[in-house]
Amino acid sequence: MANNENKNKTEGVNYEIDTLTNDRLLADHEYDGIQELDNDLPPWWKWLFYITIVFGIIYLIKLWVFKSDDMNQNKEFEKEMADAANLPSQQAQSASFEIKQLTDATSIASGKEIFNKNCAVCHLADGGGLVGPNFTDDYWIHGNSMEQMYNVVTNGVLEKGMTPFKDQLSPKKRLEVLSYIITLHGTTPANPKAPQGEKMDWPY
């Protein structure tokens, strides 16, 4: 009896063994017919706990020993302040930006590359139109001035599935692709889409 009592007593805590399940129960931990168990934690919980400890150590070493810039709030603050200080010059540069057709070969070649990568899926490589409208005819849905086309490329037409490219293409890249699109007017695509929008005079 004494051996059994010692067996069920660990570090000053009294236990009882359930005769049906052999679960270890905490003695004197019963309320309203419910007996408290003292089961071991599941292995996945223990490993998760160990991993958080290792992560915390690595995080502290990276932050305090290696002084990582991407985790330093002071440097992040300084970067934001520098960006704010440069904002007036950026706004002035934006205000002086001229929306106009580019005609040099380099810009046209760059525009063609951008078109094939981003626009051909909806307008086809020859500009004949698929989901998007035909670029080779005289009909335009949202206008054919550089300002109007630039606005469409910049802000998109979400209700018609046109993606805005203001966050994907720089202002110059937008001008390059528009300048290339202009060169498609009057060409003969393999399977041109029916005219859409309003007929407009060219040159724009």
Characterization of the model:
It contains seven helices and six strands; from the N terminus they run αββββααααβααβ. It is α+β, with helices and mostly antiparallel strands. Strands 1-2-3-4 form a four-stranded antiparallel beta sheet. It has a two-stranded antiparallel sheet with strand order 5-6. Helix 4 crosses helix 7. The longest helix is centred in the N-terminal third of the chain and has 23 residues. The radius of gyration is 35 Å and the shape is elongated. The N terminus is likely disordered.
Sum this structure up briefly:
It contains seven helices and six strands; from the N terminus they run αββββααααβααβ. It is of the alpha+beta class.
Structural class: alpha+beta
Order of helices and strands: HEEEEHHHHEHHE
- The CATH superfamily of the domain at 105-199 bears the name Cytochrome c-like domain
Q: Specify the number of helices.
A: 7
- What is the end-to-end distance? 104 Å
Number of strands: 6
Largest sheet: 4 strands, antiparallel
What Rg, in angstroms, do the CA atoms define?
35 Å
